[in-house]
UniProtKB/TrEMBL annotation:
InterPro entries, per database record: PPR_rpt, TPR-like_helical_dom_sf
UniProt keyword annotation of Repeat present: yes
PPR repeat residues: 43-77, 123-157, 164-198, 199-233, 234-268, 269-303, 304-338, 339-373, 374-408, 409-443, 444-478, 489-523, 524-558, 559-593
Entry's family note: Belongs to the PPR family. P subfamily.
UniProt name for this protein: Pentacotripeptide-repeat region of PRORP domain-containing protein
Pfam entry (one): PPR
Amino acid sequence: MPSVADQTSLDKFLNEKCRSGNFSLHEAHYVFNCIIQRQPTPPISSFNKLFAALVKNKHNDDAISLFKRFNSTGLLPDLITFNILLNCLCNVSRARDGLCREGRIIKATCLFKKMKAFGCRPDVVTYGTIINGLCRTRNTSAALKLHEEMVKGNGEIGVFCEPDIVSYNMLIDGLCKDGLLEKAKELFSEMTSRGINPNVVSYTSLIHGLCCWGKWEEAKDLIVEMMDQQVQANVVTFSVIMDEFCKKGNIIIANELLELMVERGVKPNTITYNTLIDGICKNGKIDKANELLELMIQRGVNPNTVTYNTLIDGFCKNGKIEKANELLKLMIQRGVNPNTVTYSPLIDELCKNGKIDKANELLELMSQRGVNLNTVTYNILIDSFCLVGRIDDARELFDAMTNKGCRHDVFSYSIMINGYCKNRKLEEAISLYKEMISVGVMPNVTTYTTMLRGFFQVGMITHAKKMFGDMRLNNVAPNEYTYNTLIGGIETYNCLLHGLCKTGRLEFACKLFHKLAQEGLLPNVFTYNIIINGFCKEGQLKEANDLLSNMEEKGYAPNVITYNTLMHKFLHNDEATKVVELLHVMVERNIMLDASTASIVINLLLKNEEYCECLNWLPSFSTQEST
């Protein structure tokens, strides 16, 4: 353990190990335990360096835990402490569960409001951190409100701060992602009027937003403006923007952007060309994409495997199998090695054209060239053999997979089982079904539905009932096709009800809903949710609430979607008491809350802080644990 017997040795640890991040979590806890007991207490800066190092090394939970211990001793945090902790709470990974992210933002907001009690005035970093957290969790309206309080010096905190480019960029990006383009453009103008020059991040966020929402000409004009203002976009920026144009099918502007790059001295790279080639292929203009391949070679940019794979796939999808084969030969001549992705569309297209033997020969060629064969490629060919009734050839290829080092997956088994069932070879299908379970490949809904259909076709009703029981026992949820196979049923009605409600034909949907029992089909919770949602959208909250009571009376348990649908509408109608009542019911019934529930709670608190008690009903981030 590091020696921190005096302030000098402590400073050495903090300035050397913590700054570099070269310390263990055990060491950090040891040092904290030493210094928190020392008399006199080390300066707050010592604690801040330790907290900051933990956050930098992504030990966020440990930083929060140590801060709680620090706070419990009566030691007072300063502005830097608050900024470190807020950053820790707001920058929670996007990979985390949505409810957890929302919970941390609530904690951060509570901590932010406590700063005043500790005599700490938030600065632009503080505001920027909270704004970033709110934007990352799609609470953009709350972030915008906080920005306005910051620039006007009003609101609960009441501290004026001059915003910087970082806070503007985060807000502009958040607004664009929510489709609030006009407000984003207002902020962009406000930024320049305050003497803050937009940088490449500012322009890229706004341009990307304009592209996402189909404002092509505005996006193009802004790109030109960015370059005229000497804000130098690099090849990555251009590639990202070009990708958005291509995704939306606006190939003309994407191509113009490529030429603008060259004109302004930004050299496109392989990724740039690949992006445009992919966009052109998806637009069905495969010959134009091939011309671009030649152009990139002329300009000294080397195509890679992805370039050729995209074009080969494009030729195959356009039915130009000979062109695809020619390009494959050219690719090999130019020293670019094909991979599994290169061959898969060729095999798929040959199979679709009934040239299964040619496809099989290509599979052998892949093996000879040392290309790793994958399960997907085999599955394509096996499925093709099954479709034309060549079940023995399919089985031969199925068995050959393991010799080539390819493991059968659930799709391999399902394809073969389907082939056997269609050919009424149920004994072979049953044998394969048992084999897949014995080797640890669990059947999915397609496997079970295929077996059920096969049993019904030959009148093996007892086997079908047992198979459906196995399906439920293994927690595989039946889908529409399963239900249609079994009872012709309830899922079909659910789809129909959803369509009627979506198109505003709620009255007819209700009549159909009441006829379910007459048809011998019992509604499920999803059926009720469809009608409740329809009532809410039409503003018929009384009817929606009555239906909730009706479903409970008939023994159907509402789920989180049922409650969220009602609470969202009650909140929209400023009926906060109803929202709180439903939250209370959810907690009493141990219904698992989700990110949508947390978002409703946030909006409830924004409307009226007296409902802070609701946080105690959210076990994953209750106020009792908040910092």
